[in-house]
Amino acid sequence: MLPKRIISSIILIGIIIASIFLEWVFRITVLLFTIGGLYEFFTMLEKKGIRIYKYFGIGIGIIIPLSILFRFELTRKWELLFIALTLLFLIVMQFRRRESSGVIVDISTTLFGILYVSWLFSFLIKVRHLKDGLGLFVAVLLITKLGDIGAYLIGTRFGKTPLIPRISPKKSVEGGIGGLVFSVLGALVSQPFLNLPYLHAAAVGVVLGVLGQLGDLSESLLKRDCQVKDSGVILPGLGGVLDSIDSLLFNAPVFYFYMNTVLNK
User: Fold this and answer.
1) How far apart are CA 138 and CA 198, in angstroms?
2) 184: closest CA among 143, 136, 138, 149?
3) Which of 14, 125, 139, 154 is within CB 3.0–4.6 Å of 193 for a Cys-Cys bond?
4) Residue 237 has what pLDDT?
5) Cβ burial, residue 95 (10 Å; 0-12/13-18/19+)
6) Are 58 and 39 in contact (CB under 8 A)?
């Protein structure tokens, strides 16, 4: 398992580096990861027996990053209009059903998948579109992924105290602390990109370190409910696409709003 994890990690790091330096690679990567994450999410729910609208959800979900990449907006804050229209379409689609049982669950889970994977992940694009966005994009990736690495390394070596065994038996308190420390180190290394005082940067690292682990635990909770170990198998040793981006799903929007609203980046 370890050699597979190393190989997959090297490939993932290579994709990330290429996405930093090449805009077209970044665009393709975001779109592919969005499609992959949505597919894995909806497939997990199918295994649970939910009648999900998989391809409708993927099709609608990919519109969100595309609209942001090409800066297309029908109206200001058009995401709310888009969500309302999506909900309307999902409800209208129910009229073709032969039975009414499960309608609320099917609609809710489809809409949740679009928001959870596509909408949250698309904030990475918004981060990159900010002033000095390339540096901020590097910073949020560095803080988040170093947190993942720290949690794995420290948890594997020193982890003895279960964090929340009901959700993820292998995650430990020691790993959580290690991940938080690595996130803070990532923020301090990213200080030139953040253009913040070191203490302020460290505070950002703490917040993103906590949120990143919450994102990881949230996906673990979903997988536990669906009774699957990994969201997919596209990255041997690491799991699926959703497994590789789960810690970014909360970090990207919070980081964007903080930089854009509070600091006026």
Assistant:
1) 17
2) 143
3) 139
4) 67
5) exposed
6) yes
Q: Measure the CA–CA gap between 57 and 73, rounded to whole angstroms.
A: 20
Structural domains of the chain, count:
1
What domain range includes position 245? 2-262
CB atoms near residue 165 (< 10 Å): 10
Predicted TM-score (pTM) of the model is 0.90
Full 3-state SS string of the chain: CHHHHHHHHHHHHHHHHHHHHCHHHHHHHHHHHHHHHHHHHHHHHHHCCCCCCHHHHHHHHHHHHHHHHCCCCCCCCHHHHHHHHHHHHHHHHHHHCCCCCCHHHHHHHHHHHHHHHHHHHCHHHHHHHCCCHHHHHHHHHHHHHHHHHHHHHHHHHHCCCEEECCCEEEEEHHHHHHHHHHHHHHHHHCHHHHCCCHHHHHHHHHHHHHHHHHHHHHHHHHHHHHCCCCCCCCECCCECHHHHHCCHHHHHHHHHHHHHHHCCC
pLDDT at 179: 94
64: its two tokens: 């969100």
CA–CA dist 6, 122 (Å, integer): 27
Q: Which residue has the higher pLDDT, 141 or 90?
A: 141
* pLDDT tens digits, one per residue of 91-123: 888 887 777 777 888 888 999 999 999 999 999
Place of tokens 């699957």: 228
pLDDT band at 74 (very low <50, low <70, confident <90, very high): low
